[in-house]
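Q: Given only this backbone (353 positions), what sequence would you predict?
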């Protein structure tokens, strides 16, 4: 998770309504470099502090505060990395890990868990057999569950103080880190070998969950490439909906889908990529991601689907599919019931015939 220095720097960006992308431009630091610094993977030098002071336009008092936090972060990092044998082992695993057989990986995992008393975190979210029913080539949610997911996405928007307009996903991630101390995201120039080919993944343990992102894909999301925006929102859905499963530390993995192996350069803001959703958890996260990007009420207004897709920067086919679900009487009735249970007695949805 993020260091004290990283959390305070994030707070200062949010206070200034400064996105991480804007901060990177001002400080001349890359997204992955900032993430390395704020997650204690890099020593915070005087030059880095100067870059932060410039990027944040920080006052002398704020600079001094960051300097103290940097000294603590550096000292803790030094204690964590003082064993040269451990550093060599980490380097070997990083370099040769993809060449190990499944049985060798299993043995190494057991040794690490035995020596440390810890369980390895989930690297990529996978199915755990939640109840649901399956349609042809897709997983189907009940109307009640779909409405619950939509309202959960609405609650998250409100929690971080966002309006019902289009979502700046990078700024949203920073706001959510500030609002939720069990959530974080981490950016790499290139994802670790075991995650190669993934758009993003989420890992969890008792302390919280972290979304791991590749810099090029996060930058694509910042440029409003629709697929990557939906990927980011989808992973947040796992944090919100499936936190209890991530806390279990189940060491399971789901192979990246074929589309994930494309370079970000191969996918433009207008590209449509077919996504295979074949578990209930993935279907739930996909629905949450849509409702996070497009507030659920939008689907009950008369806006043309193409305009919804363009206005909220999401894929047209995904909007069409979601509106098909939302038009069902059972789904609308489920929304009305949940709104009433929340004490909302007046809502335009009650007036729809």
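A: Predicted residues:
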């Amino acid at each position: 998770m993020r260091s004290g220095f990283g959390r305070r720097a994030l707070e200062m960006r949010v206070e200034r309504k400064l996105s991480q992308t804007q901060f990177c431009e001002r400080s001349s630091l890359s997204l992955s470099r900032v993430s390395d610094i704020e997650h204690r993977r890099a020593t915070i030098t005087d030059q880095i502090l100067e870059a932060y002071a410039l990027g944040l336009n920080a006052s002398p008092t704020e600079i001094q505060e960051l300097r103290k936090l940097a000294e603590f972060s550096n000292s803790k990092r030094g204690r964590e990395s003082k064993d040269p044998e451990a550093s060599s082992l980490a380097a070997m695993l990083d370099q040769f890990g993809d060449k190990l057989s499944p049985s060798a990986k299993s043995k190494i995992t057991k040794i690490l868990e035995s020596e440390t008393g810890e369980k390895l975190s989930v690297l990529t979210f996978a199915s755990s057999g939640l109840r649901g029913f399956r349609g042809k080539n897709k997983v189907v949610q009940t109307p009640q569950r779909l409405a619950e997911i939509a309202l959960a996405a609405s609650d998250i928007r409100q929690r971080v103080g966002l309006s019902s307009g289009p979502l700046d996903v990078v700024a949203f991630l920073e706001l959510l880190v500030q609002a939720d101390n069990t959530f974080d995201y981490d950016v790499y120039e290139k994802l670790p070998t075991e995650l190669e080919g993934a758009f993003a993944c989420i890992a969890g343990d008792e302390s919280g969950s972290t979304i791991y992102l590749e810099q090029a894909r996060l930058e694509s999301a910042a440029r409003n490439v629709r697929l990557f925006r939906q990927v980011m929102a989808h992973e947040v859905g796992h944090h919100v909906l499936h936190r209890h499963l991530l806390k279990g530390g189940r060491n399971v993995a789901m192979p990246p889908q074929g589309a994930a192996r494309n370079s970000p350069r191969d996918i433009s803001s207008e590209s449509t990529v077919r996504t295979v959703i074949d578990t209930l958890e993935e279907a739930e996260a996909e629905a949450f991601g849509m409702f996070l990007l497009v507030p659920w009420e939008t689907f009950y207004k008369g806006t043309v689907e193409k305009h919804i897709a363009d206005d909220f920067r999401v894929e047209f086919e995904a909007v069409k599919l979601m509106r098909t679900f939302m038009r069902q009487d059972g789904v609308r009735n489920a929304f009305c019931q949940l709104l009433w249970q929340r004490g909302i007695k007046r809502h335009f949805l009650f007036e729809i015939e």
